[in-house]
Every structure is written in structure tokens, then in C-alpha cells.
């Protein structure tokens, strides 16, 4: 039988960020694949991340976001656990999961909310957590539109409204009130981190090129550097594959003018 050669750095990283009870191992039945993937995900790609501006907590949240967009329940559970282990606050984990709702849909996210709460319970974290809402039913559209103007630019939003096909105006109202009003206004995550998480959802879903480009530009507008964006894609690469990662890099290069 082949001797498995997982690098010391990869072994150390796996032991450091994952609780033993949540590690899903393919070592016994698929040792060659385990060696390839572990060395890539927990050593090789980290070499790039170490040199860039992406914080470890952000990197873990990017990967966690990607697992939701791909409906990967086991990996999501592992990365909620990992996020807690590297010091991410439970409320921040919850906010990333909530942020996914308008992009992935409630029916897709509901199972991840349940898994998240199970991991919280296993770590003696009591739920429900504190409320983070900042808007009311009366001002949610107004506050959501303010954030859309900040992320996309007022001229872009005015043009979107002016060119909206007749009979579809309610979709823009939903974007203002529901997507941006109810979710982007919540406390906990910065606007910059929310936009980065949104980009991670879209990049991991695939088939969202126009929305991904818009949110790559949005990330630029709210202050995320190109290096941070590339670092996020690099972190997700072992989990989303090269086609989606390359599409994400194309959107980033277009948004940042290269």
C-alpha cells in the first residue's frame, strides 16, 4: 500500500482548526485523494494566503460561505466548527448564514441554520443569539436603498430603476426592502465583509456572472482590495474547483480594471 505523504504543515493546520469529532476523513478508503487534496487545501493554497491581506477568520468564513452555495452540509459543519476554533464570534457566523438567504433562497439555507445551531449547542453556545436588526417595516426600503447606492453607486441604481421592464418594478422594491433593507443593515458584519460574503456565494454557485461582476465592483467601491478578493478566491479554490474560480477571477479583473 502507498505511503501517505501529507505535509507537516497540512497535518498541523487540520489539527489546529478542526475539532476531532467533526473531521470527515477519506484517508482509510481513498488515501491517494486525501493526500492530494489535503496538501493542496491545507498547505499549498495557504502559502498564497499567508502572503496576502486576507485574515484567517475571513478566509474561514469565505470557505464556509462557499459550502452553503454548493449545498455541502458536511463541509459546512466542519467550517462552522473551524470558525469557532479560530475565534470568529457565533453572532458573526450567524450573520454570514443569514446573509445567504436572499442569494441562495430560504429553502436552501434552512438546513444550514439547523446545522449551525447544532454545532453551537455542541459548543455550549445558547440560542437564540441577540437581535441584530436595525430597521423597521416603515424604513427598511429607504435604508436598503442607501446601502445599494453605496455599494453600486446612485447613478447605477437610478439607471436600473429607469430601465426596469414594466411589470417588474416590484423586484427592485424587494431588492431595496428585503435583500438590502432586511439583511445588509444588520449589525455584526461590516458592509465590506457582507459584500465579500455575497461575492463568495455568487462565485461558488456558478451561472451568476453578471451578478458576480456587479458585486466585484461593489466590493471595490466599499474598500475591498483586489488582493483580498484574489485571496478569497484562492481560499475557496479547493472547494469550488477551477472553472468557477477562474470565472470569479475574470470578474475581479474586470471590476478592478485589468
Summarize the structure in words:
The chain is mainly α. It is 71% helix and 0% strand. It has helices at 8-17, 31-51, 56-69, 73-85, 90-99, 101-104, 106-122, 140-152, 154-162, 169-184, 191-205, 209-221, 226-240, 242-255. The radius of gyration is 19 Å and the shape is globular. The model has no long low-confidence stretch (mean pLDDT 93).
Give the topology.
Elements: H1 8-17, H2 31-51, H3 56-69, H4 73-85, H5 90-99, H6 101-104, H7 106-122, H8 140-152, H9 154-162, H10 169-184, H11 191-205, H12 209-221, H13 226-240, H14 242-255
Helix pairs in contact: 1-2, 2-13, 3-4, 3-11, 3-13, 4-7, 5-7, 8-9, 8-10, 11-12, 11-13, 12-14, 13-14
- Helix tally? 14
End-to-end CA span: 48 Å
Mean pLDDT comes to: 93
Structural class: mainly alpha
Low-confidence stretches: none
User: Which overall shape is indicated by the principal axes computed on the Cα atoms?
Assistant: globular
DSSP strand (E) fraction? under 5%
Largest sheet entry: none
In which range does the helix fraction lie? over 70%
